Amino acid sequence: MKIGIVGLGVIGGSYALNLKPYGHEIVGYDTNPDTIKYAREQNIIDHGDHEQPDILGTCDVVFVCLYPQDTVQFIKRHASLFKSNSIVCDVSGVKEDVMLSLDNLYVEYFELVFAHPIAGREVRGIKGAKKGLFNNMNFIITPHKKNTPGALKTIEDLALEMGFGHISFMSDAEHDQAIGYTSQLTHAIAMALMNASDYNDQTKFTIGDSYRDLTRIARINEDLWSELFIKNAYKLTHIIDHFIDSLNQVKTAIKEKDEDTLKSLMIESTKRRNALDE
Amino acid sequence: MKIGIVGLGVIGGSYALNLKPYGHEIVGYDTNPDTIKYAREQNIIDHGDHEQPDILGTCDVVFVCLYPQDTVQFIKRHASLFKSNSIVCDVSGVKEDVMLSLDNLYVEYFELVFAHPIAGREVRGIKGAKKGLFNNMNFIITPHKKNTPGALKTIEDLALEMGFGHISFMSDAEHDQAIGYTSQLTHAIAMALMNASDYNDQTKFTIGDSYRDLTRIARINEDLWSELFIKNAYKLTHIIDHFIDSLNQVKTAIKEKDEDTLKSLMIESTKRRNALDE
Q: Strand B138-141 to strand B166-169: parallel, antiparallel, or no bridges (unpaired)?
């Protein structure tokens, strides 16, 4: 297949790196000329351009690996450019907002498929692209009513080639609810922990692995994540409330020195965490 | 030196493993005969017993590597057993409670030193002991007014031999405040995240590394941690409140779609997290 990739950052670059070994022809489009130069020199892509998106016009599948709002704008602006019967797929971490914004394009002669690779790194740009980044990771496809089984299958197969370990199908609302909890809430927690008033200059001498692990993602790309948080604001604020309820249960048990409740909460969290690895 | 270790779990066993290469004679005491048998077979200790703590009576330094309450009880019960001018040192993750409970022993003919190795693993028992477990980790000594510079120096030197990267000296209250934030709060957050009402059977298919990292310590030893939480209840409940305040700042910015505030919170958390690694 001839596969186009728009935006050669960590995700787009890793899509290219992990699809290339399967014999696909990889076409890259990124507005940064250095990125295209590097991607060609490193043999991450076969062809590329930083000015002419027309290069995507002969691709069978185009992955638009941009931030949500940029994805919507790129697809709308270049809708006439995509090949007849081609598939255009996003990578956005929010789905209701993006799918609603592109609603009027569902019936175009190309087919839109919406998908979310649940992977990332705390670095930006093509140099953060990595072979094996998707190994055993989760991939979610959020079908819309106009999708054909063939297009969904194509994206599923490409995700498996890239190394993803589990492909789920769910509605856009289910996706935003689930990801609000597993991904957005965790980033909000990491930020809040790092920014809490108890942090001070001596903190670094009193931490162990736990604090390091819980704050790793406090090193956060503010452009991407402020967009993701705001686009999922309604669900995410409720999810934060549910987490605070859960934390207040722990706090109340501590305050009342209620050892039995504390232990049962710990046994439950241990059981659930073990189940994640099964 | 002849070094006694009481309780050959992850911490005690790792103390033994990481001190032995320096030529010390290591004496182990653990009430589990299988543990002593394994520790001798694996050459983790030189001598050991599961019934007679008297074996500790000739040691220059004894590390009591038990849970806080057990540490207090063991030291009180066996106070007459320790060698004259020897040092007895704990590993407890709470200090005010433990030091207050042993207050009347500060003037014994042996010297109590209180210290906290900030390291651990999500496994229990001697088989979780590990060479290098303490490499570059933090170690805190909480001196009391009767401590001699010589005894504090001995424990500091042994900590450096074990591989610890930074030794801090602070009061018991400062320790409990700092550790309440960096260690106890992080465990409370991990539990609460895992136990939140948004968790369900499908969660495992919608997670990435962030969720896995933030819940790793939700797999928690309920006997140890319920004790640590309750013994630091006053400080910890306030620390939890401060964290919730910080998270509510994030939530309010999301709710109000206040991109500027969200970004500035993210930039601050990124800056602070980067400083941890400097």
A: parallel
